[in-house]
Amino acid sequence: MNSAKTVKQAAGGTSVLDKAIAFSRRHGAKRTNAPEDGMHCILNPADVVQMLQEAGESDPFLLAAAMLHDMLQFGAVTETDIASVFGSEVGCIVAEVTDNPRLSRSTQKALRMTIAPNMSRRAKLLKLAQLVASVRNLATPTPPAPWDEKQRNDYFDWVEKFSAATGVQNPTLQAIMLAELERARLETTASGR
Questions:
Q1: Whole-angstrom Cα distance, residue 172 to residue 71?
Q2: What one-character-per-residue DSSP string does 30-74 give?
Q3: Which band of pLDDT confidence, cut at 50, 70 and 90, is reported for residue 6?
């Protein structure tokens, strides 16, 4: 069963989420790993939705934004396109979590830390779900990017700092994040990657 189908079933067929899944399929761009540019991995949007659902989040606008979270960065759509279909709430959430691709990864991360405390609750939840899904991907036996142990641990430390900067928005998501970070650090150290 594919992730989008699992997410849809878990959401009970939420119409705005169904619409987001269809929109993402129709307008999504090809996502490629770019480890040379510092990309840790490219996430399946359904994994981010699933992460939020694991944490007990059911807000249809948040889940739709999660499904569309990378459309501005990798798709050929604008915030206005998203807002015209899903409303300004979803458009704003997606815009809030989108990094400017013209900036270096280190600049993007520094900017994220600066704005983290001022992000909306939904954007904080979505960004944390993205980061936890990234940590999960990096801790797999065949991670998507050829980062060494130090690079991975630096990233895990940054995720933890970002989480602290946002404050606890959802205790369950926070607990999942801490467990995934611990597992990822152990896996990374054990494999010597």
A1: 27
A2: P----GGGT------HHHHHHHHHHTT---HHHHHHHHTTTHHHH
A3: very low
